[in-house]
Amino acid sequence: MSVHKHGNTGPGCAGSCCLKVEDLGVHFGGEEVLHDVSFHLHCGEIVALIGPNGAGKSSLFRTVLGQIPHTGTIEFQRAGGDRTRPLIGYVPQSPTFDRGDPVSVLDFFAAAVDHWPVFLPIPKALRERVRTCLERTHAGGLLDRRIGALSGGEVQRVLMALALEPLPHILILDEPLSGVDIDGEKQLLDMLDEIRRTYDLSILFSTHDFATLSRYADKVILLKHQVLRVGPPDEVLDSPEFRDVFHLDLGRGGAR
Q: Which residues form the ABC transporter domain (predicted)?
């Protein structure tokens, strides 16, 4: 499992970046996975992508990352009108580690960012670089912990820290709250908001936790192979499209 980076990796990469998707379509083996998908991710915005299992959320992320051929257009616009492809930090869905794995967070992180072999002693300068990266997600205290022994929320902090090195323009997270307890969910969402404000990032994440969207998301996209509804959280969660997709007769009622 790895956290991927896509785009230019020059110095000073963090900063405002907008994403515009128009009439996106994706096919796998003749099957239509996504069609007529259009939305905007504005600079510095946190947008939540919701939909049932199999709706195409992960496929949409992979398409934006440039991993899947598509029809339609995906455009980026950075400060000053720069339209070159930005650096995108990405955390994939449901990462798992063997609980008996002796590899530490330091080993894992150093191998990912510096290709440092896990069987060699890690130099002090690299150790401090890793600690500094982990502090971006308040995970510095996990430096010497075994990665297999971390909780779901702690793993997400480490992976988010890795996705932020080097600092991207856009951060994409696929189900970051999966396997995280209620307290951990709030901490992670507070941290996402802090990251957005600190580094001026645009953030796109998928979730099945609808109860927190009104507090943390600027906008919600309801997807089921196409965009069914997009708008402020309360507007989307109170919509007939949302109730129909999730088979709810009495509104959102604490659905997850």
A: 19-250
The region, left, alpha or beta by phi > 0 then psi within -120 to 50, assigned to residue 200 is left
Tell me the pTM.
0.88
Query: CB under 8 Å to 41, separation ≥6 — which residues?
Result: 18, 19, 20, 47, 170, 202, 204
Alpha helices in 41-181 (DSSP H): 57-64, 105-114, 124-135, 152-163
The string of pLDDT tens digits covering residues 88-135 is: 999 998 777 888 888 999 999 999 999 998 888 999 999 999 999 999
- Tokens found for residue 115: 């290709």
- Separation between Cα atoms, residue 87 and residue 217, nearest integer Å: 22
**CA 168/CA 71 separation, integer angstroms:** 25
